[in-house]
Amino acid sequence: MKKLVIPILGCFLSLSSLAQQAPKPYGAVPSARQLKWHETEVYNIVHFTPTTFEDKEWGYGDANPTIFNPTNFDAEQIVRSAKAGGSKGIVFVAKHHDGFCLWPTKTTDYNISKSPFRNGKGDMVREMMLACQKYGMKLGLYCSPWDRNNAAYGTDQYLAIYQAQLKELYTNYGPLFMSWHDGANGGDGYYGGARESRKINNLTYYDWDNTWQITRKLQPNANIFSDVGWDVRWVGNEKGFANETSWATFTPTSADGKSKGVPGNANDYDAPTGTRNGEKWIPAECDVPLRPGWFYHASQDGKSKTPQQLLELYYKSVGRGAALDLGLSPDKTGQLHNDDVVILKAFGDILRKTFATNLAKTAQVSATEGRGAAFPTKNILDNNRQTYWASKDQGTTPEIILTWKTPVTFNILSLREAIALGQRIEEFKLDVWENGQWKEIHTGTSVGALRLVRLSKYYSTEKVRVRVTKSPVAVTISELGVYAEPEQLVAPVIQRNQKGMVSIESPVSVREIRYTLDGSEPRASSALYTESFLLPQAATVKARAFGKAQSGPVASIDFDIPSTKWSIDQKADRAIDGDVKTIWVSDKNEKYPHTLTLNLGEKMTLKGFTYTPDASDHRRGTVYKYQVFLSDDGQNWGQAVAEGRFDNIQNNPLEQRVLFKKAHSAQYLRFVAVEATNTSETVANVAELGVITK
């Protein structure tokens, strides 16, 4: 059986009498550490700092260490729950932007030893390390380069402090599988009491070439993650998925295409897809929080992603050759909320049940051609990533056929290439045998480390055919799988348009949908949904799909007053149409500030406003700083009733809810976009602009 042997300095074929028959590597290929990373597939990043106790997403750096006092921190509960959710590793946030270190560092007094946790003797990084070791999970660490607390930040003295922190972490906490970095690079902060904004030149300030040599020296098996690699790249969004076509090869470039690509100065436009025939093997990580935010907020209880939503993300990340990095956020007790624990377990159970039985192993396997006895078709069914079947050098469009004696029912196809030899396949098709002939049911593009095809329906057939229709060189397949997902009932999707009409739809076929308008849980006796209906007032709509013997998860949405009577200037009707997929973008010839004036049609009591940004991959003009004014007549506005910024909105483009300090009676609301997240952009975008009245 042909195997790929992976030495420390590269990934080459074993030296045997058959070595010259093996296909030559194509393009950039992964290192040994990257191949190990590809096997991880799902891991979790854990955010837990004083920011949790401040109920914020980004800490300012001024929190008193005494507020960090989790009453029942349990690293094992977090790790067990993650493992139950199919995870194989934890990336622990040892220091976030607030600068608070969760280990007793010698580099700053702003650390866990100054908190009441474990009576000042605690080391949360060590506890996470021990829990990972106990449960067979890999450990990675994230230490933010931006430090909003450190007085030296922005000066030439800070780099040595940051590098010393990395050395402490990479020396004292066992082997790491990831060295995790993001692109946050200065701004407002506390800075040792200096409440000011400090800017740095992110091209040179952190001296990444030398700083990352610390990782290479102290943790040679740790994959370096950032938006430019070195080993793993950011996918370019925080939605949790890569593009349909996903290349592990990548050519890192800067945002302007001229300067050096470094964390915080990368061309994220290409990140979701990668670069076909890119210079380096830098696969994508798809990071996304389980809850709406990265940190725990009690207001987000009940709003975690469902197991079915996580499953969709899994197919669109891991199933596209990337990895899923799911964010977990312990609450103030120091444990994951029970709702999140239940969701993770349910998600993991679906994965385990789906992939427990590979139906392909009971099939007869054949190929239209092959490379010889050293690369037999049986290799694709041995559950070994290092063995593979290969076509001849000229055989760039081979076919693999699975044949069963009796029909099998499936909806999932799994393909892996022998990626130690590079990523080759550019297009493939899937056929089933139906009524005595082949029927094409799917067309796919890239494969790489893994391609999971999730079909829209279940198929029962005696034969399945995989046709590679485009590859520049000989094809290699290390594994092929055919699976049946367990029956599921997913949460319906609830929407209301500008006319006040509510629609409820299920992403999959269901027997029926029941709903309520009073906030109660839908039951089998609740109202049956048959068609869209008018909802002219504020209400909480909940809906649930019911199957033959069970019911699905509940979907819930809080609707405020409908926008039926509203009007808006700047031809911005898309900003109030109830559809977050339709986006208003300001005139490209205008500059900041941009203003939208909303006429509510009548005077009412306003408690706040909402802003939802464009959430697409290639969005421009996401509003960062804002002001809001109110008026009775649309002429006299007075002082702003709200002003501030939407922290982390560029990476996590969710609805922003801002409450006023007190309620106001008004008919007009003026939203002023003061500054974009990217200050070089001149346009502003609004997916939805709304008001809070209840």
Arithmetic mean of pLDDT: 93
Compute the number of helices: 8
Uncertain residue ranges = 1-20
Overall number of strands: 37
For the largest beta sheet, what order do the strands appear in spatially? Answer: 3-4-5-6-9-10-13-14
Pairing-aware structural class of the strands and helices?
alpha+beta
Please report the distance between the alpha carbons of the first and last residues: 68 Å
How much is the radius of gyration in Å? 27 Å
Report the portion of residues in β strands: 25-35%
- Share of helical residues: 10-25%
Shape: globular
Biggest pleated sheet: 8 strands, parallel, barrel
What's this, in brief?
This protein is α+β, with helices and mostly antiparallel strands. Helix content is 13%, strand content 31%. The longest helix has 17 residues, at 338-354.
